[in-house]
Design goal:
Distance between the termini: 29 Å
Pfam families: Glyco_hydro_43
Radius of gyration: 18 Å
Keywords: Glycosidase, Hydrolase
CATH superfamily: Glycosyl hydrolase domain, family 43
GO molecular function: hydrolase activity
Shape: globular
Helix content: under 10%
Protein name: Glycoside hydrolase family 43 protein
Family: Belongs to the glycosyl hydrolase 43 family.
Structural class: mainly beta
């Protein structure tokens, strides 16, 4: 069984399965997610977060699936007795977007649930994540990509109770340049712009609502935190002045182990094919998160 330092993966996402006493690890697992044709998503399973069974094929597209590239950032949530994968896809002439898939078990097989992307069809979007508020209303938080609008944004849209369609129009939560620590990136294809990547919501024990997200500082991928002043998804969101991690890693999520420890999962370094999943211990303190020393 491979250890996580031997698993090439971007955008790691961990699902804890209480009934089985194990963890499932998903991520962008195609060998080159930038250039090669999309293969699908793999999943690994572990009881100790060190040795992982797999990979198992969680999703493989049917021949008539609309997307053939950029299979990115799958995350899986248990919801109303099923398992829902939110993942990003793209095709030539079609905007990148996040679609919902469904399965009866964390191993899959996952099959399309929504009719194409849940994100707006004329927006280049990515990295949708599920958030269910205190009233039980599901939302998807996602990024409107900088390659289209230069100053990337994080947005939220209400979902149907079935998670198969968006309800209403997206609401912008904040833009990348709202955070003073963010620096522009340069791309031969897209020019200069400010990146938003990988949003993930975390509710602290004291009720504080935090949002992890990633951008760039000093030419390196970095993981940062925004905090909702209202405690609700519509904010307003205030940015903590310094990233929580800036050693060329990001696209994080937070999960709690069976022992009760809080861990940040992210990938580092941000370079293909060297990226690996990393788990870092976290502490909640003063309405924020910090890496445990």
């Amino acid at each position: 069984m491979p250890t996580k330092d031997r698993i090439q993966m971007r955008d790691p996402f961990v699902l804890r399965h209480d009934g089985e006493g194990c963890y499932y690890l998903y991520g962008s697992t195609d060998p080159d997610i930038w250039k090669s044709k999309g293969i699908g998503f793999d999943v690994y399973r572990s009881r100790d977060l060190e040795e992982w069974e797999g990979p198992y094929p969680a999703f493989r597209p049917d021949a008539d699936f609309w997307s053939d590239k950029n299979y990115w950032a799958p995350e899986v949530h248990a919801y109303q007795g099923k398992y829902y994968m939110f993942a990003t896809f793209k095709a030539d002439g079609v905007c990148r977007g996040t679609q919902a898939l469904i399965a009866d078990h964390p191993l899959g097989p996952f099959r399309p649930h929504s009719d194409g992307p849940l994100t707006p069809r004329d927006w280049e979007c990515l990295d949708g994540t599920l958030y269910v508020n205190g009233q039980g209303e599901p939302w998807m938080i996602f990024c409107h990509e900088w390659v289209q609008i230069k100053n990337g944004t994080v947005c939220a849209v209400r979902l149907s109770p079935e998670l198969d369609r968006a309800i209403g129009e997206p609401v912008e939560l904040f833009a990348a340049h709202d955070a003073t620590w963010v620096e522009a990136v340069q791309s031969v294809k897209h020019g200069s712009g400010y990146v938003t990547d990988g949003p993930f919501v975390h509710r602290c024990a004291d009720g504080t609502l935090l949002l992890l997200w990633s951008s760039f500082r000093g030419g390196k991928y970095a993981q940062a935190i925004a905090r909702s002043a209202s405690g609700e998804v519509d904010g307003p969101w205030e940015h903590l002045p310094e990233p929580i991690y800036e050693s060329d890693g990001g696209h994080g999520m937070i999960f709690k182990t069976f022992a009760g420890d809080l861990l940040l999962a992210l990938h580092t370094p941000n370079a293909t094919p060297l990226e690996r999943p990393v788990f870092l211990p976290l502490l909640e303190q003063d309405r924020r998160l910090k890496l445990a020393e």
